[in-house]
Prior knowledge:
By secondary structure, this protein is an alpha+beta fold. 50% of the residues lie in helices and 19% in strands. The strands form four sheets. Strands 12-11-10-9-19-20 form a six-stranded mixed β-sheet, with helices on both faces. Helix 14 packs antiparallel against helix 15. The N and C termini lie far apart (84 Å). 34% of the residues are buried.
Amino acid sequence: xxPATRQPALSSSRDRRWIPAGSARHPALxxxxxxxxxxxxxxxxxxxxxxxxxxxxxxxxxxxxxxxxVRIHVVAIVLIAxxxxxxxxxxxxxENAGRPSAALVELTESTRPIEVFGSLAGVPYQRxxxxxxxxDLHAVRGSSGIVPVRARLLLTARRSLTAFxxxxxxxxxxxxxxPFIRRNPGGFDYAAHLFRQGIDGLVRPVGxxxxxxxxxxxxxxxxxxxxxxxxxxxxxxxxxxxxxxxxLLGYLLGDTDRLPAEIFTVFRGSGTLHLLAVSGAxxxxxxxxxxxxxxxxxxxxxxxxxxxxLVVVTFSFLTRNEPSVVxxxxxxxxxxxxxxxxxxxSILNAVGVAGMLILLYSPAYLFRPGFQLSFAAVIAIxxxxxxxxxxxxxxxxxxxxxxxxxxxxxxxxxxxxxxIVAWHFGxxxxxxxxxxxxxxxxxxxxxxxxxxxxxxxxxWSGLAGILVAPIHWLVGAGVIVARFxxxxxxxxxxxxxxxxxxxxxVYGAAAIPFVWRFRYTWVRPAAYALAAVLLISAAxxxxxxxxxxxxxxxxxxxNARIVGIADGTGHNVWLAEEPGIDxxxxxxxVDPFTRTRWGGGGHGPVLPWFRSAPESLAVAVxxxxxxxxTSITWRSLTAPAVDSGSGxxxxxxxxxxxxxxxxxxxxxxASIGPDISSAGTMGPxxxxxxxxxxxxxxxxxxxxxxSPAGVVLFGRRPGVRHPDQKLAFxxxxxxxxxxxxxxxxxxxxxxxxxxxWAVVPTISEIxxxxxxxx
Length: 774
């Protein structure tokens, strides 16, 4: 007999792997994910800081005891995860404790200007609406003298703020107010956006701004690099045309304030907008540009590493420490230090360390789209390139290495960021995977040429002229490529209001290829269960998530009223009171709603509601499509001598889907017009929209005449502080009729699925959301 073969010992439950080995090799990444989950949980529940702190201490002590004495590794791992999540919850609780202060709330309720004192906590930057800078409020002048008040505000001004620097102490007379909350379904919640950046209010100067000199402010790193940033902007503007300069500035510094709106839309539609937001690729390009000459000059490794670290830190401050750049700078710094110490550095572990440092320093970064997109993309790229490394040829056809690597990276980043993009913007640029195959190398080449242009300009401006034509041509070629992919059919599809379950299913399905070959006891059952859940969820989605035949949106646009009408295919028409007066109407009201509720960034014609001819409105509404068997009709109702200066005046619109009608009242005159009188009782399945500013007597007369199933009070009534009390009054007065009011919560969406109209969301959901926002 041959030599006895050694039989492998049976694995015990103690040695069983409960997590994939690939994940266990990246503990820093797992720790960062746990801390991020804790930050999100703590922000949602709003615990006091003491509760998660006690959980951190208790879980850490018990985990140490269990691991040392009992050696039940699963329990220790769970306790460590609980401790890390509690640590994240504690950090966000500490960050939000006492915000906003009672003193700041009192200031925002004041209608007169107040003299305030504070220092700049950032560098002034320009947007289309004016200049902005973060402002730390220190004190205000009251009736009894100067009173200390601590808060962080956003200072906005029409005039230029370039004369001020980071840390300047200012005295100014200004109005302090609270930012607006989400007023429309799918609208932008400016208050929540600023709150998660540590800003509790807005301050706008009404007079001159006086600077009080204080020593030391000029030596802040941000002030030291700001002249370099201005020199870069001026140099690019001097050598290149406006559009090319704006695009190159976006490639280099992520600065898009000069970018034309049309080009911005093209890049967003093609899925290449991330190229104009500085990311890790820009950091690596900058490091590569400076690394080559240092290696050619045979600079010692330690000195080369220090110089590259200085370049990385300077570049991070140049981009004003955007989350993606801070993440990339930390990762690059860890890799450079590891090379200096001759120690290999895992990319995923470096990303995890960067995530932990950022979240522990400023946990609110978790809620910024740039932070989420950056980390999701880099983690996905690292996992995919590591898992499918065998697809990249090593010895033959080496010229395909870059193409395959870019394709895999683009596909991985696209899948990883799809739920995040849909969550924030409601759309998915499906052509981005293919557009990035061309645009990523092209943008990288343009970025390197742009850096070389700046270096030559610093040496001699005449040398930079040889690069102007190539850069201009390559930038133009990039715009052509982006426009080609953006205009392809189906370039952008809608994923409106993704749920947490849908996001989890996408990530779960994407994770199957990474764990399928691992021989763990839980993998195959989990994969089968996930596939079943995916199939059931897809079937349920197709059966229940049907688009409305017709949707009418009554949106809050300030003092004006705006109505959107859309069919199930996305065709829409807008009616607005004086649509050309407010330049931000489309940007802040129409576009966010159409993108998040109707699944598209574009909108149909915006027609004046008061002065539009009935024929033009009728043609626009007739363009809306309905399924066979359902007709959509529109009719104008007129009342003579409502406006004594113009004769007959269009004052109401009737939109009918089959037998159900929606009556939009523009103006409510003292006497009911003949068309309304002849309409008689509306009955069940019919809604009427009444101006909220109308008198109670006119509203009662209209309801008594028409007897609708529901009434929507649309618009604002001047001087009304508690419109929800008015709703309670109407419900008592007409118990069989449903009432809603846009005064309470902003916009209301009315959907027709046939038969009958439904107000979405319901008043109870909106009231709860409004109470939470307040």
